[in-house]
Structure formats: C-alpha cells, structure tokens
Amino acid sequence: MGEVVVIMKIMPESPEVDLVKLQADIRAAVTGIEDMKVEPIGFGLSAIKIAMITEDDEGAGDKIEALFSQIPGIDRAEIESLNRLL
Predict the structure, then answer these.
(1) pLDDT reported for residue 86
(2) Which chain regions cross the lipid bilayer (predicted)?
(3) Which own/partner pairs from 76-80 qualify as long-range (CB within 8 Å, at least 24 positions apart)?
(4) pLDDT for the residue 1
(5) What is the spatial distance between Cα 33 and Cα 50, in angstroms, rounded to a whole number?
(6) Distance CA 23, CA 30 (A)
(7) pTM for this prediction
(8) Does residue 12 contact residue 44 with C-beta atoms inside 8 Å?
(9) How far apart are CA 39 and CA 17, in angstroms?
C-alpha cells in the first residue's frame, strides 16, 4: 500500500469557536498533518484547511472524516481531494 495526500475542509460549529484552540486540538488528535491554515468563508465564519498524509487503506476517507467528527467544536469535516503519492 502507498500513501495519499488528503486535503480537508473543517467547518467549526459557529463563528464563536476559538480557531487557535481548535487547530491545537486537531494537531493533538490527528497524526500526519503537514499544513493547516484558516480560510475566511463569510459572515464571520472561517474554515480550517488541512493537508495531511496518510496510508492508502480501503475506506481511509471515511475513517478520516469520522476521526475529525469526534473533535469538539467541529460541525463537519469533508475531504476536498485525495491523491496518491508517487
């Protein structure tokens, strides 16, 4: 099996969620994160974009989304892209 690069978009529960704390919680709960940045959406709401590397296992996308959904302060996590490393 190889590795994949996953780009995730994390939406906080509300504009009042402390994004600095949420980023720290994400880094503590998830391994393989290479980059993380805040992306303004509108109306005071921002998303967190994450680039991470993980193993290319069957159902990896579902496992990753489930892992992020367990972190307090996250409304939803969606995979924007998933590409195999060569």
Answers:
(1) 76
(2) none
(3) 76/10, 76/11, 77/8, 77/9, 77/10, 77/11, 78/8, 78/9, 78/11, 79/6, 79/7, 79/8, 80/7, 80/8, 80/9, 80/49
(4) 67
(5) 7
(6) 10
(7) 0.86
(8) no
(9) 14
Are the CB atoms for 13 and 76 separated by under 8 Å?
A: no
**Contact partners, residue 60, CB within 8 Å, separation at least 6:** 4, 6, 54, 82
Q: Measure CA of the first residue to CA of the last residue in the chain; give whole Å.
A: 11
**Separation of alpha carbons 26 and 70, rounded Å:** 10
Nearest 5 degrees, angle CA 41-CA 27-CA 30? 105
Which amino acid would we find at residue 72? P
